[in-house]
Amino acid sequence: MNLNEAKNRIQKLKQEIDYHRYNYHVLDQETISQAALDSLKNELFALENDYPQLITPDSPTQRVAGEPLEKFVKARHSQPMISLYDAFSESDMRAWQERNENFLRSPLKSEYYCELKLDGLAISLRYEKSSLVIGATRGDGQVGENVTGNVKTIESIPLTLRKIKLTDLSALGFSRSESENILAIIEQGVVEIRGEAIMTKNVFESLNKKYAQAKKPLLANTRNGVAGSIRQLDSRVTAERKLDFYAYDLLLGDLARGELVNAKDKLDKLARLLGFKILKANSVCKNLAEVFSFYKKIEAKRAKLPFEIDGLVVKVNDLKMWPILGVVGKAPRYMMAYKFSAEQATTKVLEVVWQVGRTGALTPIAILEPVKVGGALISRSTLHNYDEIKRLDLRLNDTVIIERSGDVIPKVISVLKNLRSGNEKKITPPAHCPNCGGKVEKIKDEVAYRCLNRDCYAAMLRSISHFVSRGAADFAGLGPKLIEQFMASGLIKDSADLYTIKKEDLLSLERFAEKKADNVIELIAAKKDLDLANFIYALGIRHVGEETADLLAMDFSVNNSQKHFSSSKQPASSKHFTSSKHPSPSTPIKISTLIDYFQSKTEEDLLKLPDIGPIVAKSINQFWHDKKNLQFLNKLEKNGVRLFLSEVSQNQISGEGVKNLPLAGKKFVLTGSLSSLTREEAKDKIKALGGQVKESVSKEINYLVVGEEPGSKLAKAQKLKITILNEAQFLNLINF
After folding, report:
1. Quick one: how far is CA 581 from the chain centroid?
2. 3-class state of residue 166 by DSSP
3. Quick check: 125 and 321 in contact, CB under 8 A?
4. Could you say which of 3.30.70.270, 3.30.70.20, 3.40.50.300, 3.30.470.30 is the CATH number of the domain covering 82-339?
5. Is 117 a catalytic residue?
6. Which pTM does this prediction carry?
7. Choice among 117, 269, 315, 528 that is catalytic
8. Is 1.20.1440.230 the CATH classification of the domain at 454-527?
């Protein structure tokens, strides 16, 4: 066979293989056996091996790259990959439609297009002149990671867009001029496909069976399985995972949606023609009533689907309306994620272990017979405290109902006592700490059992982890593993020791090179100047959360305002501050001054502060008089830690019209993850507008802000008839 003959044969083989790929993956038609298809691929591989100059990027043999990458490079999206707001009920969906109609000032005259919301990883595919050039993860919506080598291993992703004809487009209802424009973009321009990479349930179970036999760590769930697979530096590993891909959006060059294609379902049909899998279950619904009916139908079939889903994505089908409705925050008005409710399952409690917290409190953890709930394999569940065990009347070997909603920690909601066999055993709290062996005691007026050893390793590890966490000192990137490494090596015994770490100390540790050591040292230096409220929360005072820490910081600041507003000196390390939560210019506050102030406060003084009861007041008072705590605080000051007031605190103290602010007197609770801003940013926005942020739901709360994967607070708020704001409503309220 000469070069020309080989070239012709290779081209025909590529076309034949892609023809059968399209039939199998897109049309669900097996037009050739797998063995025969493998034979064609082997012939192609052999020819390309003989004639390497004929290998092209779109060849099926190039789906698996050679050598592993050292790291992923960044890839900027041509248009943002948007996140979605969530709805959890029919009333939420009606409210969404009402908001859109209020925005338009007219009825929304459009059908809805309902797509199954796959539980996988969002991927963007860029094709230039019909050839795949970049596959990228969503990342932050603007910039993702270039994972082209890995997405090429997914057989359902075409390496070259399928050739289509004018007659194909005509059959979809496109005019001749529209069809010609579309073909021109496909053949000579840029086409982007957005979709979801997934791992099917069968593949997930098969892989875990294989890993179990090989004594390798198991995949937690299909979502983690696909995310871990896509982010493999070695694409050969990705190929072994046998991922799948379904498209849900198509971008034709720089054209706005609606310019050439007027309906979302029509856009999906076009994507299917180009060689992409589209979920067959997706449906056009004339109105919300049909949406609700479709939702119930899919929810009933959910368990039998070959892949995991967590709801529907409901889109305005008229694409011309998309740019009109636009985007609020970082999410569009024209679509909504309509999530399924919490999932439940039954399993057995095999054991109860006790976890030591940062204050020495012992938290019971139920070790469960592994069971799948909401797409995740659940083997552990918190029981909160011993009172909860007694309330449930829980015993070892009991059959229990567990519930999981999204990524919320699963919980035991009830015991099926009728299934008891007589072999169940009562659960008792330990007499000694499971970590250090120290004495365990139940403190009067508290629900928790507590390890009395102040030097307990487990408690100290969690105490330091809390000190560096978000909302506290916020040592971003300094996680529990690094802290444990520092403790194990003797570098630190408490949080104050962090500030004494030197570069040479780090270079002596395993997996610490120059750059990593420099980054840690720079981070530590940046965290010597801390926001007062963050610092108080970081101390881990028993019963003092972020809300109470803010209250104590405000009380100190108000009563010491003259001392701390006489200078506009900028903190020495202000260059490191990147958030409104970080201190803005003010005079540094000495930790010793803070100690003096709170030592002067009696429990009766503390009880005068809003929302502080006897137990919290006692705990605060004890903390500031405890000898060991004072040694720790003085050590922090000696090691260079300084405190400053946030801009929000300064404004409130200086009396800059707090009472006249839009949210003055309004109390908020946040639950779930917000896509447009972080939890800390949301809290700062509320406070800056005069509002208050609370941790728990009660009758006094004005608003519950609901993000993605809300917890039990949502149900409680609904029961109390508290006004519930989704992310879009919240952003409108704060004019974000």
Report:
1. 21
2. helix
3. no
4. 3.30.470.30
5. yes
6. 0.54
7. 117
8. no
